[in-house]
Amino acid sequence: xASVFSEKWIWITGASSGIGRGLALExxxxxxxxxxxxxNREKLEVLRRETALDEEHCLVVPLDVSDTAAVQQAxxxxxxxxxxxxxxxxxxxxxxxxxxxxxxxxxxxxIMEINYFGAIALTKAVLPAMIRQxxxxxxxxSSIVGKFGFPLRSAYAASKHALHGFFETLLVExxxxxxxxxxxxxxxxxxxxSINALTATGERYGKMDPGQARGMSVEKAVQKILRGVxxxxxxxxxxxxxxxxxxxxxxxxxxxxRLAGRVSPV
Length: 266
Known about the structure:
The chain has 266 residues and is an alpha/beta fold. It has 9 helices and 9 strands. 44% of the residues are buried.
């Protein structure tokens, strides 16, 4: 049975590591054609070779999503080189480890620029082309803290909450145009997200959280994500036991908030 992703053009940001890298490898295995973006060209080139796709069917497009002008230019170049864009995976992002009282406003803004404005800037840049071609699918990596606040994650949680508001609106507005939207809500997945997180002063956290280390493997997460995307699910919660906190907050908010202050934020 052919994959729904076979011979589809898929743009993945944050592709050089973690979930983005895992998605790229699995989608290539399923016959997709890829546009790979992150800030690190060298890692993207290594990934392209690992996909075994030739340069005609795998474009490497280094990109800092916090640079709006660069995002717009990249979109122009990519859409010029490929016949259509079937999927956009907005996966680039940065986490946080810092108390509100200690975190500078500059760090708050930086996290919002990457996680929120980066995702909406690229989506806005490609949306007209998707509408003209009769449809497309936008996939956005949120987080379980896009569903609730959590210690040391104030700006990160705020940026992920904002993604839900924007992309749920996009789904409602453009469903008639054939635009599908899926929000990914991962819990602890074994990636470098905590290592690369920003501290209160904007420095790299540099440590793997114990909870992160015990999380779901990227490979298992990617399989669940792609099953949901193929079915055009509006939201996909993925993770181990920690992912149940989404439902705890929804159905038992009082209990959730009593427990939240007792859970180690790392």
